[in-house]
Amino acid sequence: MARVPTEKDRIRDRIRYDYGQSVLKRYKLMKGCSKCGYNENAHALQFNHVDPKQKRFLLAQKAHKMVLNIGTKGKQKLKEELNKCEVVCANCHAIITYKNKHYAIHKKDR
Ligand SMILES: [Zn+2]
Q1: pLDDT band per the 50, 70, 90 thresholds, residue 6
Q2: What is the pLDDT of residues 23-32, one digit of tens each?
Q3: Cα(41)–Cα(84) distance, rounded to whole angstroms?
Q4: How far is the CA of 32 from the centre of ligand 1 (A)?
Q5: Considering Cα of 9, then 61, then 16, then 69, what sign does the dihedral take?
Q6: How remote is the CA of residue 25 from the centroid of ligand 1, in Å?
Q7: The pLDDT of residue 64
Q8: Of 74, 81, 34, which Cα lies nearest the Cα of 56?
Q9: N or C: which end of the chain has fewer CB within 10 A?
Q10: Ligand 1 center to residue 89 CA distance, Å?
Q11: What pLDDT is stored for residue 63 in this prediction?
């Protein structure tokens, strides 16, 4: 039976989301930028898919759901996806993206 989300539901979702984000944050800081080694602020660290064609989902959007909704299986999937990525800082990411022309690849796939 469908029901209208209550205030409780919203708080629970928020907690899940924050938890997922904190997992990614810890992971990013642990890894640091694979190009220059920067690891001071997780907000400046991003995931870069080594092979853009293998990208199945945007980590930042799915992480919290993967970690909590499907339990262990979700964690496994998240790990698989993380293994396809390298952590890079915003600076290096911009340079890599420009060099690889990811944008052009995405456009062609559509
Ligand atoms: Zn860097």
Answers
A1: very high
A2: 889 999 999 9
A3: 22
A4: 8
A5: positive
A6: 16
A7: 54
A8: 81
A9: N
A10: 4
A11: 59
How far apart CA 88 and CA 48 sit, in angstroms, is 7
pTM: 0.66
The two three-digit tokens of residue 46, written as one number: 């991003």
Distance from the alpha carbon of residue 27 to the mean position of ligand 1, in angstroms: 16
- Residue 13 pLDDT > 90: no
Structure tokens that stand for 9 in this block: 């539901």
